[in-house]
Amino acid sequence: MSRDLWFPSGMTVVLTIVGEALAVGMGKSLFPIAAAEEATIVDEAFQTLTILAIPVFAVVFTFLVYSVLRFRRRGQALEDGSPIHVHRPLVGAWLLVTTGLAVTVMIFPGATGLAKVRSAANLPPDLVVRVEGMQWGWKVIYPDKGVSTSQELVLPVGRRVKVEVISKDVVHSFWVPAFRVKIDAVPGMVTTVSFTPSRVGSYQEDPGFRVQCAELCGTGHTVMVIPVRVVEQEEFERWLVAQSQRT
Ligand SMILES: [Cu+2]
User: Fold this and answer.
1) How far is the CA of 210 from the centre of ligand 1 (A)?
2) From the CA of 182, how far away is ligand 1's center (Å)?
3) 1 Cα–ligand 1 center, Å
4) Strand runs (DSSP E) across the chain, as ranges?
5) Quick check: 210 and 226 in contact, CB under 8 A?
6) What is the DSSP string of 97-157?
């Protein structure tokens, strides 16, 4: 085997080992706080994809950098290079492996993960919340309780929530990083997303607890944020009563 093949091949192996050790070693510490059952599914998919992507990245990166450095022009006259002959078995293997990987991840964790994330949508929700997006803020309505607020989104822990999202003007996107849920707010239609908050928490504890617009919607897009607060059921009930007395 020529030096031009074994050296980058060796580097690929070394980089892959280092990358995988870092990815597995750091594990979930790289992720933002996970506060919904759906968040775990998304994080696991992300981890699987990272582990699979590391060797692909390593081989492309090392062979590219090696070729750039090793075969660079060193002051010779510029002329046509010698013809390149395709190494058919190598190209065939590359296509087979990368296509196989791409199709595999589309099925797992792609389709299987999506089915798991969406499984909550097929069950009756414990609570329905309406969220209206507008330039540049959010209005949260609890239709069954006669309560609405633009200050925060308060949810009970461990209950299946269905959020119905609408927009008053342009396209926005309802996104709560701690829940790993995101759905577009489209004028003229109702979009929905279902999830189950799995831990108590607030924006003061972790900035992942916030409703953030995730679709560029004008100059105030970045400040289109309201805090999210996940509380125990009893506290949620108390909050609803207090809110309904205020309005
Ligand atoms: Cu927006």
Assistant:
1) 14
2) 12
3) 57
4) 127-134, 137-142, 147-149, 153-156, 161-167, 172-176, 181-185, 191-195, 201-202, 210-213, 225-231
5) yes
6) HHHHHHHHHIIIIIIHHHHHHHGGGGSPPSEEEEEEEETTEEEEEETTTTEEESS-EEEET
User: How many angstroms is it from 228 CA to the middle of ligand 1?
Assistant: 17
Task: Tell me how far the alpha carbon of residue 17 lies from the centroid of ligand 1, in angstroms.
Answer: 42
Phi, psi of 187 (to 5 degrees): -60, 135
Two tokens at 181?
A: 């849920």
Predicted TM-score of the model (pTM): 0.84
Q: 111 burial class (0-12, 13-18, 19+ CB within 10 angstroms)?
A: exposed
Ligand 1 center–CA 155 separation, angstroms = 22
In order along its 247 residues, the chain shows pLDDT tens digits of: 688 889 999 999 999 999 999 988 887 788 889 999 999 999 999 999 999 999 999 999 999 999 999 988 787 777 777 788 888 998 999 899 989 989 999 999 999 999 998 887 888 999 999 999 999 999 999 998 889 999 999 999 999 999 999 999 999 999 999 999 999 999 999 999 999 999 999 999 999 999 999 999 999 999 999 999 999 999 999 999 999 887 5
Task: Give me 141's structure tokens.
Answer: 């309505």
